[in-house]
Structures are given as C-alpha cells and as structure tokens.
C-alpha cells in the first residue's frame, strides 16, 4: 500500500512544491504567470512519469506471460519427443503412428481458435494451461462457430470465471488430471462444456460448493446460463446471441 502511494505521489511532487512556493511569494501578475507555467509543466511531467511506469509494468507482465508460454511449449514438446524416441527404440510402430496422429489432430483443433474475432478470447484459449496450471487443459472448438465480437468478450469472461472456479474448488483434488473444454454452436446458442478426467481418463463428479452460487450469478449477469448434468459429470454454459 505504501509503495502504491509513493508511485502516485512522487511524480507529482514537483507540482506540490510549485504550489507551496506560489502561496508564499509576492502576489504579482508576472510571478503568477511564471508559477502557472511551472505548475503546468510539473503536471505534464507527473502525468508522463505515471504513464511511463504503467506502460513499463504492462510490458513486463506481457513479457513474463510470454516467457511462461514459451517455457510450457518447450516442456510439452520435449515430452512429445521423448515419447516418440521411446516408441522408436522399442520398435512400437503402431503406437508411434497413433501418437503422431494424435498430435496432428490436436494441432488441427487448435487452428480452429482462429475463427474468433477477439484476440483476447483466442489468446486465452491458447494459453489457458499457462494461466491455470493445476491441470492439463484440452480445448476443442467447432470450426463452424460464429459469434459477434461483443458476445465473444462476454464469453471470455464466463470461461475465465469457470477456470477460476476450478482453481478454487479443485484444490487438493489430486485425482484431477485433465479438463476438457469444448465450444460449439447450434441455432445461435453457444455451448461451452467442461469435463474433468482422472488419470485413467474417467470423468469425475464435480463438487457443488458455496462458490457455485456465485459462479451462477456471475455467468447470469454476463447473459449466460450455467448448469450441471444430472450425474454432475459435465458443466455446461449456454449463451444465446
């Protein structure tokens, strides 16, 4: 808190000094003009310093996020290469072929993210595993989905809210291995489905806690409707646009 106050006050310290000096000097028109000019210059200097600090912080945050993304990509591909080398060494040609085919299918699905107009939504879906690292995320998007930019922005906030909900309720759930996120559209209704799988690729029953009511309210304010399947193994957001 103290550091935050310093960041706000220090850039405008020269402006404060000018005003204090102005009040104790002789009141003459030319003196007023000089101090008015100094006050204006001090204000511009303070505004420039604050803007510079904000831009520096934003660039630093973006660079840090990019660093995490590149690190995650490097880690994932290192694992893929190790698996392919293992299959080749063990002469398991069928497993090697299936693994390569699965990689190609995943890359093909990722390119469907390009259907979105919002760069923020597309970037979040591509990097959701970097933002929320507790589990592996698998994103599957219908290539036929088409929604407007404002609706995409609402959809982004809904998905972020659900991801935050998973982070909260999934603490200590060591059997959770992967979350499947699927987006599709039917008759101007966008469906976002979330399913959690364990390490044996079996769906897990989702917990209903006090946080669920807050999540329902949040999604409703954004124009959506969220629900759980009868067996509570699937979470679905419906968003009409």
TrEMBL record:
SUPFAM superfamilies xref list: Sporulation response regulatory protein Spo0B
Pfam families referenced in this protein's UniProt entry, alphabetically: SPOB_a (PF14689)
Record-annotated SpoOB alpha-helical domain positions: 56-113
Keyword Transferase: yes
Keyword Phosphoprotein assigned: yes
Transmembrane segments: 7-27, 33-50
Organism of this sequence: Croceifilum oryzae
Keywords associated with the record: Kinase, Membrane, Phosphoprotein, Transferase, Transmembrane, Transmembrane helix
Gene Ontology MF terms in the entry: phosphorelay sensor kinase activity
Protein name: SpoOB alpha-helical domain-containing protein
């Amino acid at each position: 808190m103290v550091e935050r106050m310093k960041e706000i006050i220090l850039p405008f310290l020269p402006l404060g000094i000018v005003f204090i000096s102005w009040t104790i000097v002789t009141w003459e028109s030319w003196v007023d003009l000089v101090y008015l000019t100094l006050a204006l210059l001090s204000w511009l200097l303070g505004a420039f310093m604050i803007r510079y600090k904000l831009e520096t912080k934003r660039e630093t945050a973006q660079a840090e996020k990019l660093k995490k993304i590149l690190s995650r990509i490097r880690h994932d591909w290192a694992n893929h290469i190790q698996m392919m080398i293992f299959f080749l060494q063990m002469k398991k040609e069928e497993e090697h072929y299936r693994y390569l085919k699965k990689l190609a299918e995943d890359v093909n699905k990722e390119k469907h993210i390009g259907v979105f107009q919002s760069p923020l939504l597309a970037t979040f879906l591509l990097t959701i595993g970097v933002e929320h690292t507790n589990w592996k995320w698998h994103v599957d998007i219908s290539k036929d989905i088409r929604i407007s930019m404002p609706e995409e922005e609402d959809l982004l906030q809904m998905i972020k809210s659900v991801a935050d909900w998973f982070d909260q309720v999934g603490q200590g759930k060591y059997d959770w291995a992967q979350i499947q996120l699927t987006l599709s559209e039917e008759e101007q209704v966008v469906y976002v489905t979330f399913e959690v799988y364990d390490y044996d690729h079996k769906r897990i029953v989702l917990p209903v806690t006090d946080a669920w009511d807050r999540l329902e309210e949040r999604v409703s304010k954004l124009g959506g409707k969220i629900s759980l399947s009868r067996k509570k193994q699937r979470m679905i957001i419906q968003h009409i646009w």
